[in-house]
Each structure stands twice: as C-alpha cells, then as structure tokens.
Write a structure and sequence with these properties.
Elements (H helix, E strand, L loop, with lengths): L1 H48 L6 E4 L4 E8 L4 E6 L2 E6 L3 E5 L2 H13 L25 H4 L4
Antiparallel strand pairs: 1-2, 1-5, 2-3, 3-4
Length: 145
C-alpha cells in the first residue's frame, strides 16, 4: 500500500515541473517573437507618420518614387514615379530613402568634428640645430679601396 502512495507522490511532482516548463516556454516565445514584432510595428508606424511630400520611397512591390501628397484622413499616399502618379495605402511604403543632399553634407560635418584626444597627433618639437660635432675627415668619409 505504501508503494502505491509513493508512486502517486512522484507523479504530482512531475506535473508541477511540466507546468513550470510550459510557463517558461510561453515566456521565451513572448520575448523572442511577440515583443520584437511589436517593436518593428511601432517603428513602421513612426515611419508612416513621418512621411511628407518630396520624400523618396521604396514601395513593398519594389517601385521607387517620390511622395507627391499624403492624405492622413484616407491613410493614402500619392507616389510620383517618373511622371506617373499612383495612389497607395501608406502601409505599402516599405522604406523611406535618405535625402541625397543630407548624405552629401554628412561627411563634411564629420570632418569638422573635433577628434578625441586619443586620435590627435602629438606635435613633435621642432628639430634642434645640430650641435658642434666633430666633422668626419675626408679619409673616413671616402670609401676604402
């Protein structure tokens, strides 16, 4: 009779571990799948809200164009693709390309930025004039034959 009781006690402990493992797997799934997806969706919504006329964009189908107008009421955007005006949902914008003028100005500002002390070149003191050293005699300077 005691062996039957001991066998049942062991099963209770294993079911507790099963529940703990299940909870850990749910938490792991949340932090590896759901949370990063929410973060990515939030970044996309911020990008959609920053859309303005004149931005160069890439659509989800690969179309490159320039934003002609943004309608916040209908959540649409009109794209100018070499004179062809197309209306898309704002969510169809995959990427906003950086301005070419902004990228051209960025290197110029980087050059003007002051370098940290570790990167600064240490100026060497000016070379001291040579002190009176005995000059080599003509015999020492000429090659021996």
């Amino acid at each position: 009779m005691n062996t039957l009781f001991l066998a049942n006690a062991n099963n209770g402990m294993s079911s507790m571990w099963t529940i703990v493992i299940f909870i850990v797997l749910i938490a792991l799934m949340y932090f590896t799948m759901i949370k990063p997806q929410k973060k990515q969706q939030q970044k996309k919504m911020e990008m959609m809200n920053e859309l303005k006329k004149g931005d160069n964009v890439i659509m989800i189908d690969g179309l490159h164009g320039k934003v002609d107008s943004v309608d916040t009421k209908d959540k649409t955007v009109v794209i100018d693709a070499d004179g062809i005006y197309l209306t898309f949902s704002r969510m169809a914008v995959q990427q906003i390309l950086p301005d070419k003028t902004a990228t051209a100005e960025a290197p110029a500002t980087e050059e003007k930025a002051e370098k940290p002390d570790s990167e600064k070149q240490v100026e060497e003191p000016a070379a001291k004039p040579e002190e009176d050293k005995p000059s080599k005699s003509s015999k020492e300077s000429s090659p021996k034959e």
